Structure formats: C-alpha cells, structure tokens
Amino acid sequence: MTTPNSRPPHTEVRLIASSGYPHDVAVAARGVAWLKQHGYHTTNPDVLARRYLRFGGTDAERLADLHAIGTGVPHELTLAVRGGYGIARLLAQADFARIAEQAAASATPIVGHSDFTAFQLAYLAATGGITFSGPMLLADFGADRVDPYMWEHFEGILRDPAYRIDVAAPQSGGQPFSGAVAGTLWGGNLAMLCSLLGTPFMPRVEGGVLFLEDINEPPYRVERMLIQLQQAGVLGTQRAIVLGDFSNYRVTDYDNGYDMEAVVAYLRDALPVPVLTGLPFGHCARKLTLPVGAQVRLAARADGFSMAFSGYPVLPPVA
Q1: Cα 2-26-286 angle, rounded to 5 deg
Q2: Deepest in the core among 126, 174, 183, 189, taking most CB within 10 A?
Q3: Are 57 and 28 in contact (CB under 8 A)?
C-alpha cells in the first residue's frame, strides 16, 4: 500500500467515456476527487458532461476517446468511465494498430471492464495489446466507500511487473486440479465474449486461462452462454477456466434447486479442463485488476489458488 508521503509525482489519468454516460454527476465528481486525493489527476473531466442518447457522447466523440489513448504524457493511465452499452458501435471503425502503437510508446495502462471487455478483446485480437480488466471511475472510485482490497490490488499490479495474488476460494466438490498451468490470461464479461463470437474481434486464444464474470444474468442464461462458448470450440481449448462474480440475479421456484452451483457442476462434467470458482472480479466492489493478454501461472492451493502475472505495462514504482 502507498501513503501520501511515499507517492511519486502524480499520475495523469485520461478518461474514456466509450459506453454509457454518468448516471449521477455527483458520483462522477466524487470519483475524480478521490483519485486526485490519492495522486491520480484527471486531465479531461469534460468527457463526463457529454450526453448523446444513452451514450457518453456521439459515436465520433467516443471513437476519438479510443484514438486518443496513449497521446498524453508517458505513463498516463487510461481509465474507462463506466460500462453499459456502446463499444459495439465503434469496433469496426477503431484503428487498433494506431492505438497499440501510441499505447506502447507512452506505456499507458488501459483499465476498465463490463462493456469495455469488447474493446479489450478486439484490441487483443487485432494487435496482441495488453489491457487491464479492473475498476472504473463511477462504480469503483465514485463509490461511497472505495473498497480497500480493490485499491490495494489496483495499485499493486500497476506498480509491479511481476505481481502475484493468493485467492482463498475453497472449491465445491474439491480442488478440480493439482499443480499449475500457464498461458495467456484473457476474458472478462461473459455476455461481451459471446457477442464477439463469429466476428473478427474475437481473440483466438488456445492454451489460455479464461476468466469470466457477469451481472443480472440468472443461472440458466449463464449456462446457455457458457454452452455457446463450448460449442464454438472456445472453452475446451483452454488450460483452465476461472469464474468470478456472478451477481444481482434471482432464482425462482420454477428453478427447483437449479442455481450457479448446478451450472458449475454441469460445466465441470462437460469440459476436459479445470473450472475454478471464487475469483474476486466482476461487477462487485471487492475486485482484482487483471492483465488481459499477459501471461499467468495459475497454481492450485489447498484453500483456493494463486495467480502470478508477467508481461504487462506498469506505472513507475512508488519511491
């Protein structure tokens, strides 16, 4: 953890409002203020005032946000404002090679999740560029109470090129694998992955470690999307699948005991690869920041698993 006295000169933050607009300007302002208090200064808060239909600006404005990634000072952090919907409109027009060249030259970490998953995976498919599935301005930094676990691991991985985490997550039915597997870490929001199937924006990752999360999706819809990925040949070619937070859904009497545990049990029976649960990631306050496209070593532990990451851009270390 960093302290005000140990922090280097402030980090500049470029916001990208590439999906929805801020639902509450007070929440957005609180997020900007919290980041500034902790050494992250927003350079373009004007994007927070943009509105066009349900989007954070016109398609041209939001596309310009993407094309501006990496054009600021070296090591500028790029942070998504929020999710919702909107990235799908931009993918066919995005110049991913240009974005990747700029991002590499400036060593800018790119962070977001939810709808932003579509950009992250398309960027990975087109260029091999690495981004971070992690917190966003509104839901995370604009919260009434910024989660200390989220902040610890956000700062941790963005300042450490060889970050490692231990996850205490006992597995229902016992540990599904032993030893360790390694490969490309990729994934994000389950619905966004499914939306990219059959398009040039879906990465073709084999032998990877796929992590997944979603919100507002009842278990049967989660299972249907997972089966779609299985039948498309995605799941069976991975070294492991790690499930994060699936929240804000409800089951009914009609489900008759069918729940997320039943989905996981079905998936484990259907796939030749280990399926783990309990990854602290998704539409939840307590989340990790995960480098999409980087390398990961996933190791089994008696009480869960560990993940060691490498090969991703970082901010300058704390002095």
Answers
A1: 45
A2: 189
A3: no
Does 153 qualify as catalytic in the annotation? no
State yes or no: is 114 an active-site residue: yes
For 271-307, write each residue's pLDDT tens digit: 999 999 999 999 999 999 999 999 999 999 989 999 9
Residue 213 a catalytic site member: yes
Domains of the chain and CATH, by start: 11-146 (3.40.50.10740), 164-310 (3.50.30.60)
Annotated catalytic residue within 19, 76, 217, 283: 283
pLDDT digits (tens, 9 = 90+) for 218-231: 999 999 999 999 99
| Cβ-contact 230, 158 below 8 angstroms | no
User: Which among 114, 153, 155, 223 is annotated as catalytic?
Assistant: 114
Q: Active site residue: 76, 155, 213, 223, which one?
A: 213
In the predicted structure, residue 113 carries a pLDDT above the cut 90: yes
